[in-house]
Task: inverse folding
């Protein structure tokens, strides 16, 4: 196979894995935009969602479809519960407190998962077909291709919802200006709840797709570093930015891994985080808000 | 008018003389306790004393950053690591005395703090927290991968440090002494304009600017100072444990120190001390409870780590929601020190 | 006539398409009380914020005591001799009244990280001196003694406004900028505040720049008045002149107090 075709193959694999980052990144952005909270528990929510799928599908025997629905619903439920029980009492407190709390919640989630399911890898149901997908001469591993297709569908559904539905518009209004949104009759608390619920679904979906490839451990949340790189590169408030950055970083990691080896591949997220921070902290598409005194 | 001046001495916050006397008594009691410990305590007590002292230093530092200046730092353990590695390397390659190694560790951590703080503080908002997360991950990566210097996963091991020939007790006094000095130094900062500037910048940064406080450089100083304290603590930790490896400086350890600050009481010196003591004792307490409850040894190691994650996280969340002023707040209320005027929960 | 202490020249600033200040010029003469008045939203606080260095001006210049103000960072104002209070009170709730006031002298103090850590010696002396200065010069003047060691949060609004004033004064400024010093006060409180400000101005010869949209309080104590409406200066002169100005009357007719 000639070099170009090989490169294309790797690229497609890269985009496919980028799909996972896009979903997780979207969950982060929706929470950040509407509640201004930096969700330190994003990685752990991915991990927990995946375990919930494992729980419902294999441990409780719902089968993969029932398990999937149950897992996504439960993940949304956990996220909304966190908002209702932990974050809502803290409204009005300094911003740092809210962010610290997500950090604490992340730790609790890691611990709970470790306690219930132990540190060893658990394999998920073969949700995604293994048979490789051929695009002309190019071969893409089945799981990744289907994973990408799924991620893409979910991301698309989310973006349509965000753009065109009433609830989505309410979220966008809140994200732009909370006070004005409230004065227009939008129930801010419901918007927060909804944002967290969506974040729960997106992270769970992202985690499940990721877990389908490699299995799940309590350390799955470590992928949060890669998600951090995606979100920083894209700009923390940009839906479009996250899509672009997610695909790009997925692609970059795969290419680097293929041509330079695994060590270099693992270095990429750090590099991106540091470069973005030093060169353009607002990312490619992030916004700079002007503070009125 | 003169009647009102007399009333000033009876101001509800507890008269100035009273609280100063109380504080002085507290310091003296602390010194007395420190001196007495080796004589009535067991070997275990001495060991814990050293550990507590080291954790106090790190907690005091994090409290300056998080509690007083209001900046979230979730990568505190990375700075401990910088201090530990730098001081260990100084000892191994240069043979420098402990005092110099501690300073070296603190200075190195200070500089690394500046390195991450400078770009982050140009942006308003939560960006510094992100930078500290980046610091946590990337420094761990460096500790683990830069094998020729840091020894990689195996880390570094140090020969025993004998301070003035007094052995373990001598080392204990050194650690306790450094902890006492650094805590006192932090307390003193907040008697002066330096500390007031940190608090001002936390509460209303634009008003602080109008008063001549450069917001960015003040936040940077608070952050780097916290890192320096962690560096000093790390240097002492390295000398204490005689090994330095990456797994001592993980995210869980950062969570530990954040919990110490929140549990103890943000923005108070006493809070740092109480929080450090509480959190250092906590793993011992967990182990104690587990031994009595579970009995079987087999699963203990597996349970310990997730249990810690849950408890540390729950402490942070619980105290932030229910007792934002931490143990110090609890104590104040227990002693009937109710704030006469309903203070807004500014914390 | 001497050069004004603060000379604002053709300042323009916009916020996302809305022109907040349009070619605004004003002069504040040394030792005099100048008032900026105008209906709500006229741009008074915006002008203050430009002088304070929070907003960059799109065009125009401001000179203070001969120096180009717009080229300096916000935190340098204090050193140059400008102090200000805020419309919504910007005190620090986590500190006591005394500590808040001490911050007014921050730019004058010399304690650094190292002397502070040690405390005994120069830092302690500096703190003692400042505490004495506060007791002597502002606490008594503004009747704040009884609140000295109390936490700022929870104190009555009128008291907090006086604390902010004390904080501004202790910085020994050349120019004292007061943003709505009478806002939200009862008639009694206003009279009291008026008395304090007059005492301060006559007593120390300080230059004062006030904002308020309460005509009564301002007219009795100002030497010079500048009227803003929709971001433009529509009149400037002595209180008597401005009061009779038809454009000013019209601007205020739309505003029922």
Result:
């Amino acid at each position: 196979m000639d070099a170009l075709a090989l490169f294309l193959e790797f690229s497609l694999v890269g985009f496919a894995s980028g799909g996972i980052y896009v979903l997780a990144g979207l969950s982060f952005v929706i929470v950040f935009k509407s509640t201004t909270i930096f969700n330190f528990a994003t990685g752990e929510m991915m991990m927990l969602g995946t375990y919930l799928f494992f729980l419902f599908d294999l441990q409780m025997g719902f089968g993969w479809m029932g398990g999937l629905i149950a897992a996504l619903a439960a993940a949304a439920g956990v996220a909304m519960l966190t908002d209702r029980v932990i974050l809502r009492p803290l409204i009005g407190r300094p911003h740092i407190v809210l962010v610290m709390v997500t950090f604490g919640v992340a730790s609790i989630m890691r611990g709970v998962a470790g306690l219930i399911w132990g540190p060893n890898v658990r394999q998920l149901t073969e949700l995604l077909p293994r048979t490789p997908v051929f695009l002309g001469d190019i071969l893409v591993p089945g799981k990744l291709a289907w994973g990408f297709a799924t991620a893409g569908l979910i991301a698309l559904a989310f973006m349509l919802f965000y753009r065109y539905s009433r609830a989505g518009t309410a979220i966008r209004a809140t994200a732009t200006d909370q006070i004005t949104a409230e004065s227009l009759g939008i129930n801010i608390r419901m918007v927060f709840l909804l944002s967290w619920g969506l974040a729960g679904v997106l992270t769970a979906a992202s985690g499940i797709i990721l877990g389908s490839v490699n299995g799940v451990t309590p350390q799955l949340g470590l992928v949060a570093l890669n998600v951090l790189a995606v979100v920083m590169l894209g700009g923390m408030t940009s839906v479009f930015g996250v899509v672009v950055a997610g695909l790009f970083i997925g692609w970059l990691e795969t290419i680097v891994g293929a041509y330079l080896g695994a060590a270099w591949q693992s270095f990429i997220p750090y590099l991106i985080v540091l470069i973005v921070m030093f060169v353009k902290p607002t990312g490619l598409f992030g916004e700079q808000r002007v503070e009125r005194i | 008018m003169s009647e009102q001046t007399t009333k000033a001495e009876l101001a509800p916050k507890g008269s100035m003389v009273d609280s100063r006397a109380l504080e002085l008594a507290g310091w003296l009691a602390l010194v007395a306790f420190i001196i007495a410990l080796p004589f009535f305590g067991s070997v275990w007590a001495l060991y814990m004393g050293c550990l507590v002292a080291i954790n106090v230093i790190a907690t005091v530092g994090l409290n300056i950053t998080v509690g007083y200046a209001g900046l979230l730092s979730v990568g505190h353990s990375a700075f401990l690591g910088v201090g530990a590695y730098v001081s260990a390397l100084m000892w191994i390659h240069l043979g420098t005395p402990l005092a110099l190694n501690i300073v070296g560790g603190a200075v190195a951590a200070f500089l690394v703090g500046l390195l991450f703080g400078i770009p982050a503080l140009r942006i308003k908002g939560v960006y510094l927290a992100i930078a500290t997360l980046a610091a946590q991950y990337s420094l761990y990566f460096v500790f683990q991968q830069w094998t020729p210097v840091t020894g990689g996963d195996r880390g570094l091991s140090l020969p025993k440090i004998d301070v003035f020939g007094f052995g373990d007790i001598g080392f204990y006094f050194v650690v306790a002494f450094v902890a006492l000095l650094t805590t006192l130094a932090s307390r003193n900062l907040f008697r002066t304009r330096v500390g007031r500037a940190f608090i001002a910048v936390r509460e209303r940064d634009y008003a602080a600017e109008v008063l001549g406080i450069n917001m960015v450089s003040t936040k940077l100083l608070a952050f780097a100072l916290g890192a320096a304290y962690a560096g000093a603590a790390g240097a002492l930790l390295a000398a204490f444990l005689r090994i330095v490896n990456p797994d001592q400086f993980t995210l869980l350890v950062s969570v530990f120190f954040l919990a110490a600050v929140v549990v103890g009481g943000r923005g108070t010196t006493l809070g740092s001390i109480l929080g450090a003591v509480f959190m250092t004792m906590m793993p011992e307490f967990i182990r104690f409870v587990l031994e009595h409850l579970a009995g079987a040894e087999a699963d203990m190691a597996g349970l310990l780590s997730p249990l810690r994650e849950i408890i540390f996280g729950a402490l942070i969340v619980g105290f932030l929601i229910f007792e934002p002023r931490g143990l110090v707040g609890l104590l104040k209320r227990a002693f009937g020190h109710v704030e006469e005027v309903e203070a807004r929960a500014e914390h | 006539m001497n050069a004004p202490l603060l000379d604002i020249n053709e300042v323009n600033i916009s916020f996302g398409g809305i022109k907040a200040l349009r070619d605004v010029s004003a002069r504040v003469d040394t030792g005099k009380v100048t008032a900026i008045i105008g209906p709500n939203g006229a741009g008074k606080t915006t002008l203050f914020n430009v002088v304070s260095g929070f907003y960059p001006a799109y065009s125009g210049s401001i000179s203070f005591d001969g120096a180009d103000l717009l080229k300096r960072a916000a935190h340098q104002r204090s050193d140059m001799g400008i102090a200000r209070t805020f419309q919504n009170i910007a005190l620090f709730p986590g500190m006591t009244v005394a500590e808040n006031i001490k911050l007014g002298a921050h730019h004058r103090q010399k304690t650094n990280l190292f002397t502070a850590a040690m405390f005994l010696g120069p830092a302690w002396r500096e703190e003692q001196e400042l505490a004495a200065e506060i007791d002597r010069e502002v606490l008594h003047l503004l009747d704040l003694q009884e609140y000295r060691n109390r936490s700022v949060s929870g104190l009555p609004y009128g008291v907090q406004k006086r604390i902010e004033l004390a904080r501004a004064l202790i910085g020994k400024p050349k120019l004292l900028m007061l943003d709505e010093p009478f806002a939200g006060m009862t008639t009694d409180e206003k009279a009291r505040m008026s008395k304090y400000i007059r005492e301060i101005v006559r007593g120390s010869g300080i230059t004062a720049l006030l904002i308020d949209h309460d005509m009564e309080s301002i007219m009795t104590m100002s030497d010079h008045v500048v009227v803003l409406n929709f971001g433009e200066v529509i009149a400037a002169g002595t209180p008597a002149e401005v009061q009779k100005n038809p454009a000013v009357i019209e601007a205020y007719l739309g505003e029922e107090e």
Observations:
- Residues 37-334 of chain B form a domain with the ABC transporter involved in vitamin B12 uptake, BtuC fold (CATH 1.10.3470).
